[in-house]
Design goal:
Elements: H1 7-19, E1 32-37, E2 40-46, E3 55-60, E4 63-70, E5 89-96, E6 107-111, E7 114-120
Antiparallel strand pairs: 1-2, 2-7, 3-4, 4-5, 6-7
Length: 143
């Protein structure tokens, strides 16, 4: 039997049980990191125990939506659960993307329970040098 004595973790577990698992109409939040790396933004979501086919990524206009569902593992009839802390159900996160990001070329990778999205910065938003033209002289208008 497993024993644990962290009272704060116990409070978190009880709060999660009271709220119940996330559903499609009321999903739970998922932790994420977001940062800029060179000419792209990277967003990483923690989704341990979620299979890749249970992840749904949508972009509508500038709204990025990531939904995932962690389903219970199939157990035989003779299994007696001693401790269950890993949340099950539906998880979702929505992010408003800036107009300067190229939503047509988002790359998604899923490895070791981490979903990583790479969103390139649009060419029109990248800094560029503007050359100055030099004229050959002034022209006067006479009238």
């Amino acid at each position: 039997m497993l024993m644990r004595t962290d009272p704060f973790r116990e409070l978190d577990r009880l709060a999660q049980q009271l709220m119940g698992p996330g559903t499609w109409s009321k999903p739970s939040a998922m932790p994420m990191d977001a940062y800029r790396e060179g000419d792209e933004y990277v967003v990483a979501f923690d989704l341990p125990g979620v299979s890749a086919d249970a992840i749904d990524i949508d972009v509508e206009r500038n709204m990025l939506t990531v939904k995932a569902e962690r389903r219970p593992a199939a157990k035989s009839d003779d299994v007696q659960m001693e401790l269950s802390e890993r949340p099950l159900g539906v998880f979702s996160r929505q992010i408003v993307l800036a107009d300067t990001l190229d939503t047509e070329h988002i790359q998604a990778d899923y490895d070791a329970g981490v979903l990583t999205l790479r969103i390139p910065i649009a060419e029109r938003a990248k800094p560029r040098k503007i050359t100055i033209g030099v004229g050959s002289g002034r022209k006067e208008i006479s009238g």
